[in-house]
């Protein structure tokens, strides 16, 4: 079947072919659904739900969001008649909607969908695999709305669930475990538990390196992301030389990915470059740090023009780093201008999400005062 073919193609990294097969499956089932709705509506719902994941994978986020909403709509209709049969499909469709809403910067809606998906899977109590995935996505959604402690709790639950699954079928669940461990590392960074974050990130890197040896096309993005998180964590615990090596490797990996699919991997590259600038600054390589920080600002400006809701925080951080870099090389007038822009960016973020960005806004204002005093 075309749906099964699409899934198999996606697993080996043949995303363009997977997308074509998924779209063709939807088209065929739409034709059948027009003639015999009772018989083929479940197949159509399943095909649309499968299409969501492939669209999201290739960076077609608007199309993925539309497909996800359609899949949820179809499954809600089916669930009203036969919930015993279609509740699992509804749960997975809602989970898919949560993921794509998050990628589009609609964080409050993503959280609502993620919470519903977890609730549905807990009620079903059938397949731990799906629950683990939904819990992991819930952790990401909680982090994005500024609830880091709850995000960490969800990330740790996802790791526990996947560890149990991995003990039984590691061939199937090792990639999921790697992703969950990476998510736990990121959540630990957010709550300031940097030593534990470093250990978790190292474990994620080890898992992804094993996976990358067999299927690099599929697992290289996860490895790049895990390396980037590890670089951040090492920097926070003062292991700057190691952090620099890891941060440079993360950037190298993301540059390779970005050359092939910039729509998907440009955000990861921007984040990795911004992290590298911070590490270079910490080891006193100020000229190199300034060059890299300037690139990070350029990358985030490009992303911010398309989806400001998603990338404005990254831009604010990159501009703040750029201001610091300018100050370290004695370009105080330029540093002050960049610092003032950072204040403006963080002010806007703090107005929307005070809990998350009020402190960063205050820090940015303090940077401006220091630069004004220096001038």
Structure description:
The protein has a domain of 126 residues: Tetratricopeptide repeat domain (Serine Threonine Protein Phosphatase 5, Tetratricopeptide repeat), CATH 1.25.40.10. The longest helix has 21 residues. The protein has 375 residues and is an all-alpha fold. 90% of the residues lie in helices and 0% in strands. It starts with a helix and ends with a helix.
Overview features:
375 residues, mainly alpha, 17 helices
SSE topology sketch:
Blueprint: H1 2-11, H2 15-35, H3 37-57, H4 61-81, H5 83-103, H6 107-124, H7 128-144, H8 148-168, H9 170-190, H10 194-214, H11 216-236, H12 240-260, H13 262-282, H14 286-306, H15 308-328, H16 332-352, H17 354-374
Give the name of the CATH superfamily of the domain at 1-126: Tetratricopeptide repeat domain
Instruction: Write the CATH architecture name of the domain at 1-126.
Output: Alpha Horseshoe
Q: What class would the helix/strand composition place it in? A: mainly alpha
The level of helicity is: over 70%
What quaternary form is this? single chain
Number of strands: 0
CATH topology category name of the domain at 1-126: Serine Threonine Protein Phosphatase 5, Tetratricopeptide repeat
Most strands sheet? none
The residue-averaged pLDDT reads: 93
Question: If you compute it from the alpha carbons, what radius of gyration comes out, rounded to the nearest whole angstrom?
Answer: 22 Å
Percentage of residues in strands? under 5%
Our count of helices gives 17
CATH class of the domain at 1-126: Mainly Alpha
């Amino acid at each position: 079947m075309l749906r099964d073919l699409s899934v198999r193609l996606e697993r080996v990294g043949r995303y363009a072919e997977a997308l074509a097969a998924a779209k063709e499956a939807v088209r065929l089932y739409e034709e059948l659904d027009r003639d015999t709705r009772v018989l083929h509506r479940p197949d159509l719902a399943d095909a649309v739900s499968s299409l969501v994941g492939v669209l999201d994978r290739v960076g077609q986020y608007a199309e993925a969001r539309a497909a996800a909403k359609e899949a949820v709509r179809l499954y809600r209709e089916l669930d009203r008649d036969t919930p015993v049969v279609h509740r699992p499909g509804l749960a997975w469709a809602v989970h898919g909607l949560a993921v794509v809403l998050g990628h589009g910067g609609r964080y409050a809606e993503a959280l609502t969908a993620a919470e519903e998906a977890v609730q549905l899977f807990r009620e079903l109590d059938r397949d731990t695999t799906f629950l683990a995935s939904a819990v992991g996505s819930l952790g990401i959604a909680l982090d994005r709305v500024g609830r880091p402690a709850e995000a960490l709790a969800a990330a740790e639950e996802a790791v526990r669930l996947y560890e149990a699954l991995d003990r039984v079928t590691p061939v199937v669940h090792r990639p999921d475990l790697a992703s969950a461990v990476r998510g736990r590392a990121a959540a630990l960074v957010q709550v300031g538990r940097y030593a534990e974050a470093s250990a978790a990130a190292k474990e994620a890197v080890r898992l992804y390196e094993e996976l990358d040896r067999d299927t690099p096309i599929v697992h290289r993005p996860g490895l790049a992301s895990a390396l980037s998180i590890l670089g951040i964590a090492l920097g926070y615990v003062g292991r700057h030389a190691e952090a620099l090596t890891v941060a440079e490797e993360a950037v190298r990996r993301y540059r390779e990915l970005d050359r092939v699919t910039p729509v998907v991997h440009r955000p990861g590259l921007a984040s990795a470059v911004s992290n590298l600038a911070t590490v270079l600054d910490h080891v006193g390589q100020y000229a190199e740090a300034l060059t890299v920080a300037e690139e990070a600002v350029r990358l985030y400006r490009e992303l911010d023009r398309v989806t400001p809701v998603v990338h404005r925080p990254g831009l604010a951080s990159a501009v703040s780093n750029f201001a610091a870099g300018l100050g370290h090389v004695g370009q105080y007038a330029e540093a002050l201008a960049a610092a003032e822009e950072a204040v403006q960016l963080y002010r806007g973020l703090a107005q929307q999400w005070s809990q998350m960005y009020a402190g960063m806004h205050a820090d940015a204002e303090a940077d401006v005062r220091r630069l004004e005093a220096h001038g």
